[in-house]
Amino acid sequence: MKICGLQKTTLLDFPGKVAATVFLSGCNFRCPFCHNTDLVMGSAEELMTTEELLVFLRKRRGVLEGVCITGGEPTLQPEALEELAARIKALGYEIKLDTNGYRPKVLKNMCEKKLADYVAMDIKTGRDHYPLASGKTDIFIENITESIGYLMSGTIPYEFRTTVVRGLHNAEDFEDIAQWIGGCQRYFLQGFVDSGNVLKSGFSAFKRAELEVFLKIVQKTIPQAEIRGVDY
Predict the structure, then answer these.
(1) CA distances from residue 224 to 28, 112, 156 in whole angstroms, order as listed
(2) Cα gap 153→62, rounded to integer Å
(3) CA 37, CA 168: separation in Å to the nearest integer?
């Protein structure tokens, strides 16, 4: 398990919790707008060992309540992920898992073994355009659908989210997403931010007024859908 980043405190990443965020290396997608290029490609340097992370978390007990495990894509190393989550849980922390949902069996195991308390799953775009937005031309959309169905069965608190990128998303995508995840607990539209370290340059963000058009589309089946992190 290669730990390549640590945000020591966040009030935003884990709903209702003061948390730390751990960034793991490697991903099975190549989303062209991804802002974590080094993590995705596996070229980021290791920041700390698991033991060093646990030492940090022991010291922060009583201040932090949860740990977000993100990437890259954490589910690529299921055994190491389960071990890491179990050791963090043993310290009294709750776990939020970020995932692209492409490995539903790993997701199910994490939840059924009570190694995750909250899941945030990316919905990259509408089903027809998933190869473009995920950078994975041979994608099996059934894997994504299986993860969606599992989370919507009510086993664990969760959210779905889409980073909305000009040139990759249009109204038809959100019409499809509204059908695909209609009735879900929580869904967020997030504005694209060019970190300067994206996999492919040239993308830009929609303005908030444009995102609100997409929001109205998905609110037909997801009344509680929201725009998150956009003030322009």
Answers:
(1) 30, 27, 18
(2) 33
(3) 18
Task: Enumerate helices (H) and strands (E) in the chain, giving the number of each.
Answer: 8, 8
Distances (CA, A) of 132 to 82, 128, 165, 193: 31, 9, 12, 18
* Domains, the chain, ordered by start: 3-228 (3.20.20.70)
Judged by DSSP in three states, 156 sits in coil
**pTM score, two decimals?**
0.95
Q: Determine the Cα–Cα distance for residues 102 and 147; give it in Å rounded to an integer.
A: 7
At 186-203, the pLDDT tens digits run: 999 999 988 777 888 889
Instruction: Yes or no: say if 217 and 187 are a contact pair by the CB < 8 Å rule.
Output: no
pLDDT digit string (tens) for 129-161? 999 999 999 999 999 999 999 999 999 999 999
Check residue 166 and report its DSSP letter: B
Measured CA to CA, the distance from residue 113 to residue 109 in angstroms comes to 6
Q: Is 72 exposed, middle or buried (0-12, 13-18, 19+ CB in 10 A)?
A: buried
Q: For the chain, what's the residue count?
A: 232
